[in-house]
């Protein structure tokens, strides 16, 4: 082997930094970070397919805990990189930020959000192997992370240099890796999590076959579980899937593709009799859950098209005013998928498209193509349904305007009466203040007495709040519990909600650890999700976790938050201890509640986040909507406790 030169040392130091501070590259070393390793690899194959090279991706979970990704694209290049003097494939896996893209000419569109690159996956793997089939030959290179002579682990170094294994008629790339257990809190990949992501990719890349093989899950006949996703309708099928269990206003989603010299747009739209707005947007296959310029352009075009086409067709009379954007978005389910070069992401979670040109490009394309569809004679019924729905929404909007204003009016008599139940805090620094929403008056009372009133405010909730799913804003605003929450937060609601006006940095839901408590949490989260989504997206919503047990021996008191922890403490105490099981928050006295659940030094909280907007949406409609049948199916599919015994037995876990 040739000697290392200085350039190679730079490369090694790059990957060293990744092992030193994995969090800087993949956010966290939890399960989420572990899966990030896989997304880095899969995204490369998706890019290849999205640009028209190949049509199949296979992800395999192996018994030894490793995972592989295979595509039938062009294969990673093996020729020597002119500056670095090593093969292209070695560059991709050892050079930070190299990715699968050497320059912009190889790909028209590519993600670049997850894009810390495949080298990060390599650096954080115990071993990684690559097979690339290219130019009629099969090549293989292997990497590993092993200690050097000083005992320091070097991540992702070449174990076996690139060699040719012979000839082949295939083209494409195969990458298999073993995540490094010395880095991650857990190295168990979740078939469910991966399947969800692959399904979304399959919707976004119509016609592509994306499969997941899980060797750890066996079917009855001993074969391993194989899930295949292929949607010839693409995002049109996506919309149909999202609307399962709802009542669509017309049978087939509106669908069109269009492109200019700057962007490619694909769009599917269907309305249901629901009241919520569901627009999912993507740029280069990356979910833009914070929206951005493309989504703004889309919304503007939507309003213009329906007003113009509606007037032309006579559904909007001369004396009737145009409807506004939100009227046309009530009950909409839409997927907007665009492709463009040089994407810029902004926002708190870097999921908001910033490119200014995307607004006008998308607006023009959507306006022209959607208008052409709506002007067709056989679209008349569809157009009429949309305009009528919009008119009803406009009516409700005007009716709820007054109620909305009330919740914003800080000093009005009514507003003061509403927050009468609120025990506010004395501090005025919104960045430090916390609002506890507490289940039940008795727990609310304990929380009031136990809290640190300088920054903690308490809002007790009486009984079950209203399930806001399937309710119009107007009805939500008539509900006392929600009105007090809205007024207390002081940041508006729905389209008017602005996180900047928040009076609290943390909104903490505190409910019992039982069925009723779970229901209350679900209802509150549904409300925040539907009417204050940025509150969740920006990470302001938390679930307080009260202890399940108090275990004590003489003056030594410990609180356990799980059965496992209880066993641990019982072992520590040995003999002669007492266990108290808390059935509810109300059983704790103010001091105990403070100590275990509210004191920032000791408390445990779960921060609520949305990883996958489309799946979150599906979950909420299924769990909180009024279609009982699909809720049953969902629960039996995803929550094993309700599975039919024989159905569950089909999937035997093997080690
Ligand atoms: C790059 O431009 C020249 C032709 O090949 C392009 C390329 O690298 N294609 C490519 C990379 N297809 N698939 C990959 C890939 C697949 C996996 C599983 C992992 C990685 C890092 C890249």
CATH architecture of the largest domain: 2-Layer Sandwich
Tell the overall outline: globular
User: What is the averaged pLDDT score?
Assistant: 88
Low-confidence stretches: 99-104, 639-655
How far apart are the first and last residues' alpha carbons, in Å? 40 Å
Strand content: 15-25%
CATH level-3 fold name of the largest domain: Heat Shock Protein 90
Separate helix tally: 22
Give the class from helix and strand content and strand pairing. Answer: alpha+beta
CATH C-level name of the largest domain: Alpha Beta
Largest sheet: 9 strands, mixed
Present as ligands are: ligand TTJ
Name given to the CATH homologous superfamily of the largest domain: Histidine kinase-like ATPase, C-terminal domain
Number of strands: 24
Number of domains as seen in the coordinates:
3
Radius of gyration: 28 Å
Helix content: 25-40%
How would you explain this protein's 3D organization?
This protein folds into 3 domains: 16-229, Heat Shock Protein 90; 247-401, Ribosomal Protein S5, domain 2 (2-Layer Sandwich), CATH 3.30.230.10; 410-546 and 605-624, Rossmann fold. The protein is built from 22 helices and 24 strands. The longest helix is centred in the middle third of the chain and has 29 residues, at 380-408. With 655 residues, it is of the alpha+beta class. Bound molecules: ligand TTJ.
Task: From the structure above, extract its key features.
Heat Shock Protein 90; Ribosomal Protein S5, domain 2; single chain; globular; 3 domains; Rossmann fold; binds ligand TTJ; 655 residues; 38% helix; 9-stranded mixed sheet; 5-stranded mixed sheet; alpha+beta
């Amino acid at each position: 082997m040739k000697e290392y030169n200085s350039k190679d040392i730079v490369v090694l130091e790059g990957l060293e930094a990744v092992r030193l501070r994995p969090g800087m590259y993949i956010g966290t070393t939890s399960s989420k970070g572990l899966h990030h390793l896989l997304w880095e690899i899969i995204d490369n194959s998706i890019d290849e397919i999205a640009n028209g090279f190949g049509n199949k991706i296979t992800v395999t979970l192996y018994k030894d805990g490793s995972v592989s990704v295979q595509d039938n694209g062009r294969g990673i290049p093996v020729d020597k990189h002119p500056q670095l003097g090593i093969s292209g494939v070695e560059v991709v896996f050892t050079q930070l930020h190299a990715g699968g893209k050497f320059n912009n000419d190889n790909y028209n569109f590519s993600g670049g959000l997850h894009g810390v690159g495949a080298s990060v996956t390599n650096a954080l793997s115990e071993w990684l192997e690559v097979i690339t089939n290219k130019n009629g030959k099969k090549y293989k290179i292997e990497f590993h992370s092993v200690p050097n002579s000083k005992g320091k682990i070097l991540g992702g170094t070449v174990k076996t240099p690139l060699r040719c294994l012979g000839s082949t008629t295939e083209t494409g790339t195969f990458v298999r890796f073993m995540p490094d257990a010395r880095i991650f809190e857990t190295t168990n990949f979740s078939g469910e999590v991966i399947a969800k992501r692959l399904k979304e990719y399959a919707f976004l890349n119509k016609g592509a076959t994306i499969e997941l093989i899980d060797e750890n899950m066996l079917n009855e006949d001993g074969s391993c579980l194989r899930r295949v996703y292929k949607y010839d309708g693409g995002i049109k099928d996506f919309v149909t899937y999202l609307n399962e269990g709802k009542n669509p206003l017309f049978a087939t989603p509106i669908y069109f593709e269009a492109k200019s010299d700057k962007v490619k747009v694909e769009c599917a739209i269907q309305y249901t009799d629901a009241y919520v707005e569901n627009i999912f947007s993507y740029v280069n296959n990356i979910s833009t859950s914070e929206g951005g310029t493309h989504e703004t352009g889309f919304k503007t075009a939507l309003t213009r098209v329906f007003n113009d086409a509606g007037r032309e067709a006579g559904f909007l009379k001369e004396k009737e005013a145009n409807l506004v954007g939100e009227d046309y978005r009530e009950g909409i389910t839409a997927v907007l998928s665009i492709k463009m070069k040089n994407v810029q992401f902004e926002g708190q979670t870097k999921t908001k498209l910033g490119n200014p040109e995307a607004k006008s490009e998308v607006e023009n394309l959507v306006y022209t193509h959607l208008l052409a569809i709506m002007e067709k004679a056989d679209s008349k019924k569809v157009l009429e349904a949309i305009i009528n729905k919009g008119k009803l929404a406009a009516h409700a909007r005007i009716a709820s305007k007054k109620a909305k204003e009330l919740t914003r009016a800080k000093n009005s008599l009514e507003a003061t009466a509403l927050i009468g139940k609120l025990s506010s805090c004395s501090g005025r620094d919104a960045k430090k203040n916390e609002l506890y929403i507490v289940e039940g008056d008795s727990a609310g009372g304990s929380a009031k007495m136990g809290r640190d009133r300088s920054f903690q405010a308490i809002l007790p909730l009486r009984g079950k709040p209203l399930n806001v799913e399937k309710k119009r804003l107007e009805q939500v605003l008539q509900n006392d519990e929600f009105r007090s929450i809205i007024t207390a937060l002081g940041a508006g609601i729905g389209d008017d909600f602005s996180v900047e006006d928040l009076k609290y940095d943390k909104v903490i839901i505190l409910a019992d650890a039982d069925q009723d408590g779970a229901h209350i949490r679900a209802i509150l989260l549904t409300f925040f999700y539907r009417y204050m989504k940025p509150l969740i997206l920006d990470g302001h919503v938390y679930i307080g976790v009260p202890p399940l047990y108090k275990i004590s021996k003489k003056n030594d008191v410990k609180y356990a938050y799980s059965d496992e922890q209880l066993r641990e403490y019982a072992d520590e105490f040995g003999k002669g201890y007492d266990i108290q099981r808390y059935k509810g928050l109300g059983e704790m006295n103010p001091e105990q509640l403070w100590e275990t659940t509210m004191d920032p030094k000791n408390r445990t909280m779960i921060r609520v986040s949305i990883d996958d907007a489309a799946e979150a949406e599906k979950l909420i409609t299924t769990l909180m909507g009024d279609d009982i049948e699909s809720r049953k199916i969902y629960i039996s599919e995803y929550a094993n406790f309700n599975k039919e015994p024989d159905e569950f037995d089909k999937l035997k876990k093997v080690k």
